[in-house]
Every structure is written in C-alpha cells, then in structure tokens.
Design a protein that fits this description.
Two copies of one chain form a homodimer. The first copy, chain A, is built from eleven helices and 13 strands. With about 300 residues, the first copy, chain A, is an alpha/beta fold. Chain A is globular and about 50 Å long.
C-alpha cells in the first residue's frame, strides 16, 4: 500500500573524515522516500525552490517515487551544512538556510488521499497535526520530531502525539520528551502521551520498539533490532530518516500489522540506515537491490539470533 | 569448573544523581567475582591493605568465593573516587590512590593451579602475561585492559594478547587498540593480534562478540546480546566487570565451549551488568537469586527474539 511522506528536501554540504560534498540532495523526506521505495509506493509532500532541477527530480523518479506533491516555490531550496569531524555520531551544524522551507505549508494532493500510510517528518507539530487531519482515512501514521519542537512547542507537540500511531525518535529526544533518564520508563511515559508504539533509535546500536499494552497484539515486551556498520561510515547524514523509511516502507508492504511485523520492520529500519551511511548523501540508497537488502536482513538476524 | 580472577579490590567513593556512597567495597575483581559466583566457584587473587576488615571479607565469603588468594599488605587498600553527575555512561575520576595496589604482584596459590578458567583483570599487561604463564594448565583465559595500557604499554599488551583467548573491552578501547573507527574492521584487527574471540561492550546497549575464523566452531558471524536498564541506574560503577563476571562465570559452568555457549554467556554478561547498576556498589550483586537471573535472561532473550 502506498505511503505519503511529508518532510524536507534540502541541499546539503557535508564534511566527514572521509571527505566532503557540496550541495547534494538531502533532507528528511528524501532519505525517507528513497529507503521506503524498496518496499512500497511512496508519494512525497515537500517544498523546493527554483534551484531544484530535473536532475534532482530524476533521483526520485528513478525509484518510482511520486513527485507530484513537491511544491515549487519562489526562492532557494532549504540548505544545510554540517560536519562530523569530531564525532561520527553527531553532526555539528555549520549553517542552516531555511529558504522556501520556512513558509512550508504541506498540501495533500487529492490523488494522495487514498494512501493508508502516512509519515510526518520532522516539521512543526501543528503542521503535522493539520496534515493528519486532512488525511483522515489513514490506517497508520508514523511521526518524527526533534529537541527543538520538544523544547519550544511542547503543548502543540503533545496534541500531535495523540494522532501519531508510531513515534520514531532517538534516545536523547525520548528522555527529554519524557523528562526521565531511564529508557524503559521514559518509553512508558511517551506511550501514555498517545502513540501505540514508540521506536527509540540508538544510532549505530540499532533501535528498540516499545508497545502500549494491547497495541498491535498482546504482551508488554519491548523488542530491539541491531544495526552494525558493515562498511566504513562515509557520511552519517540521513541514517535516522533512512531507518524510518525502511521501517514504515516495510509496514506499508504488509497485509496485517501485528507485533511480529513491527519487529521485522525494525530490522529493515536498521538495514536501510546501515546502507545509507556507506556513501555520501543518498548515493547508496539510489542503487540498492532487494537481494542486497534481504541479505543484510539475514546478517542482522544472525547477529542476534540465539538458538 | 572453578575460575581464578586476578584484579583489584578497592574502596570507592561515588557520587551519582541518585546519591552518594563513601568507602564502599569495589574494584574490578570484586564485581567480577560476585557476578561470577552465581555460576561457578571463584578464587580471587588481589591485594588489600590493613583497612580491609572482616566485614569486607564476609561479602566474598557469603557468596562462597575463595578469599585465600587475597594478599594483605602493609598500608591502605586502593581507593578510587568518582562521579557520574554529568553523564551516567562515563565516570569522572575525582581521585585515585593506588596505595598497596601500586606494587601488586599477583601470586597464584598452589591450590588454585588446577583451575581451568582464568580472568585477567585490568592490570599491567606484563603482570597479566606472567600470571598466564604460571597457570599453564588453563583451558580458557579471559582478559580486560584499558586506554592507559593501550597507549602506554602497547608492546607489552600485544605480547599479552597472544595468550588471551577472549578479550573483553569497550568500543573506545577496541577502536583505539585497532587504530580503526569501523567496529567490525577494528574487531578483525584485534582478533589478528591473538584472541580467538573479542567481546566489545557497548554500555547500556549490550555487547557484540566477534570470533576468529574457525575458533569455537565454524562461521564468521558476530553476535550481539542486548542489555536494558530495567530499574533506575543508581550507580554505574562495576557494570563492565560484572558483565565480564557473568560472561566468564557462565562459560566456566558449561561442559563444552562452542559458539552457542559463548552467545548465551554474552546474554548472562548483560544480565549481570544490568543488575549491578541497580544499587550503589556491590549491594545488588550480593543478594541475587538464580531465579532472578534466569528471569532477566528471558526478558533479554524476548527483547531480541524474532520468530
């Protein structure tokens, strides 16, 4: 089933210990869509400026991604510059130019309305909630957020969390949102805010999914899927968004949503995140095969499978 | 089968966000021995000063640990003070007083010589190697080290690594020892230095074991066991040593050493580490039951078990 992804398209300038790249296609929606495109049909809702050229759109089109929802605005596309010289696990932002993204008001095309899956990328929680209201026929909504919204727009975020089924955030964000340093307890507090499931991403150590009692089946056990950088980490940009794309894309490809399916989705998230970091920008995500994805899924399964 | 553990006994003064404790029993050998004592007979080789009292020895004796190998020297026991106010994952050392530990030369009692398992705690690599030579009948030697020895005594450490079967270190130490930032590649480099298996501890995210080709069975897949702080983390001191104690203790309790056994041992390491941090010092490790240990093993197994 198709999935609608709302988020940013950007041009990134990145410096890592392996090298540098200038003005390459990036943004949360871009990584998400490319990763999800290996599992299901993806429709994107984003905004770009006049500098977004045919060659950029081609990157999406080649993966069969529906680009009709990309709004073209006067001005320049969102630009971000960052470096990972001191720490591969955390970007140091050199500059952020919001440009056309500053006034972004996501609009859902009529022909996107029949999608049953929705992913709300890291944008203002009020915009997230408004998209969710428009798409009132969706079966499952995934969402992301970040420290900035947790601190600055907490009341709005708490409203939005009521309509998000699966929230995907990292350890720091989960602890900050919950005001609690113990991970399992922080997870319970976040689940009490609305989501049926909470995915906490641990960077290179994988991710843990916590379920609200009774959601997606019985039981109260969390589940952890690993990840492991198989090749050298060339550029960590987009790993989390690619994780979300693999996770949500796999869910959207399944007939039924139960805990086993969500556990497998967590593995696919780790798989797509691990591919993303092997090359600069989206290069690796543009040219994967399902065989490569399945094979890495097996490697990660072996990594944690006790007889 | 019994295991001989060589390392430090200390008195620790610890400050964490949950409180503080002064001059409580600690040291790598202490945590290791208590954790391992739930699986097998443990014999310790360490040095203490005149301030080491009957009440301290009782903590070992109550767990059936053989304390005959504790040397009593003139002076004070090793003291360490540290705090975790900024970061629960990394101690900030307030003071280190080596005292009698400075001149520690481990001596193996004649009656310890029949032990088939040996754990070389974090001491000078030349001392580690000399103990290993003395104990020439051992079947499996585990070892720990740290940044200090990796930087200051690299040639001696490289010699010692040739006689260690399983090295247990953390991510930073593994990357530093290998001079390589990619974890799987760092692991291969360390394995080429001697050990048949390398356990890399990831703190609250568990640990990964890498095998040298052909060691403990066929295949080349690494394996990861999780850990999860079930209760509040009161005091992280000794988590890594307790991990090593659970890991080595379980190995020593098994008839055969194959990859499945080493994988299970990795789970028991995570289990014992997760218990250790629930109370200050060794409090929790003094009063566990096998039922509690088995039950947490099942929780961690559920955490990563894909149908």
């Amino acid at each position: 089933m198709s999935i609608v992804a709302v988020g940013s398209i950007a041009f990134d300038s990145i410096v890592t210990p392996s090298g540098r790249a200038e003005n390459i296609l990036g943004g949360s929606c871009t990584y998400f869509a490319l990763a999800a495109s290996y599992f299901t049909e993806v429709r994107i809702v984003a905004v770009v400026g006049e500098d977004f050229a045919t060659e950029h759109e081609e990157i999406f089109r080649k993966r069969g991604i529906d680009t009709q929802g990309i709004e073209r605005a006067k001005g320049k596309t969102f630009r971000w510059g960052g470096q990972y010289l001191d720490n591969l696990n955390e970007a140091k932002t050199d500059f952020t130019e919001l440009n056309v993204f500053e006034k972004f008001e996501p609009r859902i095309l009529r022909q996107y309305m029949d999608s049953k899956f929705l992913f709300l990328g890291n944008i203002h929680p009020t915009l997230q909630a408004s998209v969710r209201r428009e798409m009132n026929g969706v079966q499952l909504t995934g969402g992301d957020t970040m420290n900035f919204w947790i601190n600055r727009t907490r009341p709005e975020l708490l409203e939005t969390l009521k309509v998000i089924n699966v929230l995907l955030i990292n350890d720091t964000e989960a602890k900050m949102l919950a005001g609690e340093g113990n991970l399992p307890r922080a997870a319970q507090k976040v689940l009490a805010m609305g989501p049926q499931a909470l995915v906490i991403k641990h960077g290179e150590y994988g991710a843990t999914i916590f379920f609200r009692e009774g959601a997606f089946g019985i039981g109260h056990h969390p589940f952890r899927a690993p990840t492991l950088p198989i090749e050298e980490v060339k550029d960590p940009t987009g790993a989390g968004d690619s994780f979300a794309g693999g996770f949500m894309g796999y869910l959207a490809s399944q007939e039924e949503l139960n805990r086993e399916v969500l556990k497998r989705a967590l593995f696919y998230g780790g798989v797509m995140g691990s591919f993303a970091v092997e090359r600069f920008g989206t290069e690796r995500l543009q040219q994967l095969t399902r065989e490569e994805i399945n094979s890495r899924f097996q490697v990660f399964r072996e990594l944690t499978h006790l007889e």
